[in-house]
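User: two proteins, same treatment. go.

Assistant:
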Amino acid sequence: MGERHILAAYNNDTATFHLQLLTKTLDMQKYPFIKLIIERTITNEEYDELFHLLHTLNSKYEVQKEDGLLDFSSLLIHFAGMLNEKLDPNETIFALKAEGYFVELMNTFIKIIEEDGRK
């Protein structure tokens, strides 16, 4: 049993080390969302939950847009309220947009954020 524990710790340490090497070789400025996921230690499950949330919100956005709705603040509030506590809503939105995820929805969220900042 002790051997497995040592092996697991070794593998985890090795994986962490390899990940650190990879992040040094990549231009992380091009991948701000991936950088957030790594820095905030988002798990695979948490990552999947985030994308489930985004798909749900994007579907609601499309329906509301088709219905002629112009105010999507409730979707942004829902996103911020359901977002993993390890992530900052604004930072996550800008990072998602930069990497091309849900661009129209993220542009809408950014517009709301910027309008609120001007008030």
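Protein 2:
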Amino acid sequence: MTLFKSLVGATALAATLIAASASAEGYPERNITMVVPFAAGGPTDTVARLVAESMSKDLGQQVLVENVGGAGGTLGAGRVASSEPDGYTILLHHIGMATSATLYRKLAYDTLNAFDYVGLVTEVPMTIVARKDFEPTDLKGMVEYVKANKDKVTVANAGIGAASHLCGMLFMSQIETPLVTVPYKGTGPAMTDLLGGQVDIMCDQTTNTTKQIQGGTIKAYAVTSPARLDVLPDVPTATEGGLADFQVGIWHGVYTPKGTPADAIAKLNASLKKALKDENVVARFAELGTTPSADADVTPEALKAKLESEIGRWKPVIEAAGQYAD
């Protein structure tokens, strides 16, 4: 009887392995959901939809973007962490994946151990901008002005954990001056109030500010990249403007739930690499002031290393600011 049971068990295990192998070979056999942990229309959503459209063509199945906003991106990340690890639910998240590990005292997932990694997507520069009638004419003058008027200058952001919140914290840390922060529920309403003059300044991604800067509806003081951007050649770098070493980019990566089959991750990785070479994606990224990640960075290993490094980089900044979320 024991031998019989062993034979039955071995047969069942073999059947399971064969089925899993066949399933992996046929992957994907249905639509894939790409969770974006922020509202539709924001800068991360823009990046995701460009990538998802191109990956859909390559994979032969639709990669459908689902916006699961809230709690600085942690709700969407948690949704993916708890999903079936079958390759049909993936996450496109930005730098907030790293900062949330410190910002949030309680997370529903272990940032470093709840996910498998696909690869980096892009690193978007930030811009320091203001309402178009803000008085200072350059970055040096702006810093002097806000330091002298710290109790009345308002800094907009898209909510705790958003790119604009992180850049705003870094800016205040750099100039050693706390300012009045005004959090919004998303980039859209924050930009709307900046355009309307209800708030004074904001630090946000070029994917969200470039067209407004080019149209003259907001005032640009600096970009946070090491060099000026081709798409905004007249906007100096923060270093040129007097903020030494103020360089920050909002990097994006693609993740899957922990335990996703290696073959599925490999196919997603190959498709992501193709998408980042897609002429339309490259052109649209350029219009938004960014470039696709190089092949060497579009790997699981590179994304994991980036995440670990950025958790270490941002932890002291967040702790110094004392801006935590429950």
